[in-house]
Amino acid sequence: MPDITIAPGAARDVDAVARLHAQLLADSFLATLGERFLRVLYRRIARDRASTLLVARRGPDVIGFIAGTENTKQLYRDFIRRDAVRAVAAAGPGLVRNPRATLETLRYDAVAGSSSDLPAAELLALAVRPSARGRGVGARLVAALQEDFGARRVSRARVTVAADNTAALAVYVRCGYVRAARIEVHRGRASEVLVWG
To answer: Starting at the edge strand that comes first in sequence, how are the strands of the sheet with 51-58 ordered?
Structure first.
């Protein structure tokens, strides 16, 4: 799609990114915490020097995004240290409804990062509007994040995907990711960890 551009996400894009995450990644735990929580999270990612938020635009509309970080554990520590009050206030009901899933998410990096073979850098989230799928937008976003990682001297990164998400797994494999581990971030739900580089 020649009319689609990929650019760094800014504060003005956070609302659109949070909305896309909530709608298109609705089965993810973070989406259950609501758009207000996602706005706090993506605002932190956009501001964080070691993280990247990229958006795909068709004209003025955000039709997709990708987020990544050099070090997931450090990003989550900074998020808790700087944004905990806003995040808890925004996520309130979701945290109360899902206390176990909240704890599982907080300890995610210990599970995913428990193997010394897995990199600290991570592709955190990718979403593309259904109307723009099948046109290479997701692959372009992944390539742009990999280019950003390269500019940061990050040569390897991981992504964690629900094991039954065959469409996402196919995109990552086409973009050079290789299956490296199978884990359970949330009890009873298998995930695949894939590594690029």
So the answer is: 4-8, 51-58, 61-69, 122-128, 157-162, 189-196, 178-186
Q: Which residues contact 32 (CB under 8 A, 6 or more apart)?
A: 94, 97, 98, 101
CA dihedral sign, ordered 156, 137, 76, 181: negative
Domain count, the chain: 1
Residue with the two structure tokens 């990929």? 6
Provide the domain limits for residue 42: 4-196
- Each residue's pLDDT tens digit, 123-175: 999 999 999 998 999 999 999 999 999 999 999 999 999 999 999 999 999 99
Q: Are 194 and 180 a contacting pair, CB within 8 Å?
A: yes
Q: Say if CB 62 and CB 20 are below 8 A apart.
A: yes
Give the CATH number, domain containing residue 42.
3.40.630.30
CB 194 within 8 A of CB 158: yes
Q: What is the pLDDT of residue 154?
A: 97
Phi, psi of 152 (to 5 degrees): -90, 5
Cα gap 189→58, rounded to integer Å: 35
d(CA 130, CA 175): 20
CB 192 within 8 Å of CB 168: no
